[in-house]
Structure formats: C-alpha cells, structure tokens
Specification:
Length: 188
Amino acid sequence: MPRCWSLSGGIVLAYPGCEQNGMLRIRVLHGPNINLLGSREPSIYGTMSLDAMDSAILKLAEELAVEVDLRQSNSEGELVGWIQEARTGYDGIIINPAGYTHTSVAIRDAIAAVGLPTVEVHLSNIHQREEFRHRSYIAGVAIGQISGLGPTGYLLALRGLHDHLTASRRQKKTSAPATSRRAAKGTR
Ligand code: CA2
C-alpha cells in the first residue's frame, strides 16, 4: 500500500493526494465477462488480460498515492453490494459495468444512492457499436464516461477522478467557515 508521506533530510514530505483527511480511496469495479479479457475477441477488447490491466491501474495508483481496491464480478447483485459498501471508506468509484451498462437500473440506483463521484469506463467505443450499446443507464449518474480507449481508459479515469476528488477536498477546506479555520490554526 502506498504511503502518504516520506522523509527527506528530516523533513516530512506529504504527497498531494494524501491531505489532512487521509489518502484517497477509490474502488474499481469490472462487470461481467471482463475476466475473459485477452482470451477472446481481441479485435474488440484487445489482448491485455484483466490481471495485466489491474497491475497497470495499481502502478498508477501508487504514483498518485491513491489506494485502489479492484474487483470483478459477473453478478449484478454483487456489483450493487460492492457499490453500497463503498459508501463507507471510499471517496470514489470507477466502474466498467460491461453488459449491465445497457440494462441495469439497479446499478444506476446504487451509484445514485451512495452519491460517490463515479467514472464510467468502456474499453470499446460503445457509441460506434450496435444501437443497443449506445444507451447507458450509468452515464446519467456518473461524473464522466470514457469509451473506446482500451485499458488506457481506466488510467485516464483514475487520473481524472484523483484530480476531481483532490479539487473538491481543497474546495471544502477553503470554503469552511472562517471561525473553524481560525480554530484549526489555533488563532483567535
Ligand atoms: O467496451 C466495454 O468495455 C464494454 O463495457 C464491454 C462489455 C460490453 O457488453 C459493453 O457493451 C462494452 C462486454 C465485456 C465482455 O468482455 C469480453 C472480453 C473478452 C472476450 C469476451 C468478452
């Protein structure tokens, strides 16, 4: 797990994503059949395996000093459970709902209910494919959608969500009432 700080000549250096409120935590969810990546349909989904993709996400997370939790499920109910669970202890969600993108009101409702900033990712460009893939039930409750960039899409989602969460933390701090800022500084 990446650290929030390091020592340099006796000085503590804090990493940007690890402010007062602790390290950012992001849950990454892969939907049904994503476990087959690399083994079938390489012309659509590429040749990278799920393990290799997860390793690339973990590597970037380490660089950004973000803690990520990666999961894949073929079950809609399990994905809903993991989204609900993320409410406590997580700052945001990255999800490729795969086939459930185009069918699942339950996943959409779970994302809306937890209220965590969520980025939707697709390996393929869903808007260039069959008509039934053009509609996403998730897009309306996500802060953004990345589609068609292959595994790079997850890395862009991680950077984007990191920047979004860091900016909203900073904004919360600066918009705190003046009295509590004074109290935090120990001034009157
Ligand atoms: O492009 C994407 O990431 C999708 O979410 C992938 C889903 C598809 O239903 C969406 O419309 C777009 C399918 C995931 C299936 O993944 C496979 C990977 C390798 C071999 C077969 C399926």
